[in-house]
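Changelog excerpt

This revision adds worked examples to the README so contributors can see how folded entries look when concatenated. The first example is reproduced verbatim below.
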Amino acid sequence: MKVKHLKPDPSKTITWAKGMSQELFIYPRTADFQKRDLLFRISLATVEAEESDFTPLPGIQRTLMLLKGKHKLTHQGHHTKTLMPFDQDNFMGDWQTSSQGKSTNFNLMCRAGTSGILKHVKGIENSETTFELKADVELIYLYVGSADYNGEEFMPGDCLVIENRSREQLKIACVKDCEFVQTSVTIKET
């Protein structure tokens, strides 16, 4: 099991008219979101306007988990969903999508050939949290709290990326109560 500890990278932040997006991880690592040559991308976004429209992303399956605020997503011709913290919505990137509400959200974008899920995991102060690793690539994002992984401080905004081809477990010691988002992505063999 190969584990990499990533800190927030300000150079991976995109500011747009109604908020910002920070790339946490992209695969393959040589991919460029602007060129859309990715298999999958994991990002954090803030929406600072009461109303906004999502950028069309044809060919990309999106999963969005709300972290903070309240967000109403309307996918024209498909469905409408109101999200509270840690609720999720799945939709295609080419759907015409608008949102209402200021928020912070966690995003997974997958192209054909990949599939992924997001899971909210709570960690209790002074205890270990165990993560089941079942996918090809796993990303564990610390949203709130503080933790320790193998003697290394794990702070909000930090991620652990695990490239994993076997079923294993990863344990993180929570120094304070923690809120994690675990992203599990399977890459289909071609």
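The second example, added in the same revision:
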Amino acid sequence: MGAWGPGSFDNDDAMDFAGEITSPEDLLGPLTLESPEHDIDAELGCRIIVVAECVAAMRGFPSPHLPDALAEQVTGFGRPSQSLYLHARDHLAAVLERGELLGLWSEGDPSEFVDAVHELIGRLNRRASHVPPGPTPKKKPFYEEEWFKQTLCCFCNTPLSDAEFASVDAKINDGQSSAIGFSAWAHLDCLNRALHHRYRMRPFSMHPEDVGEDDTIFEVLDARPTLED
């Protein structure tokens, strides 16, 4: 019986592919989806996840579970092109939306698998070391203010701090004339743990430094992935 687990490298298909990667060109092969109807079987899903892990490592945020041999290879790959970055995360989202892997995990409890993919998305969302910071805003964003960081999460009742956050609006309506509602803030991880896996949220970064200006992202995703900017 082969290895099977929720982590990016917890199964044989992923480890087999990780052992085949010797150059950045090897990362392009799994990024082959041409339409929303394209099937993503379990093997392809595992390969897409490995590609996303390599891209996260190339951006400076490797998984602690990255196999040593692969980590050594990725160190020499340099930074990922915008095309590779965007195609990797777009394919990763497709694995969660319609991949066979999610279907297999959904036969039991898919939470560990979904959590693992969301953790990977979180690393892909971090500002890469090679991406220069944008211009300093004239006014500090509210989420950088100390009062906001001290705001309590409505799920765990601890300060939001610097964690990813979400706004929560809830209403209970009895179907007649009365309704009870509230608005609050929450850690994104706390909110996701409270939701069914099909409704969990982990939006990708849309910083212009990562995705380009205007409609560049759509032009890049409409073309085949490349290693060139």
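Reviewer comment on example two: The chain has ten helices and two strands. Strands lie at 165-173, 179-187.
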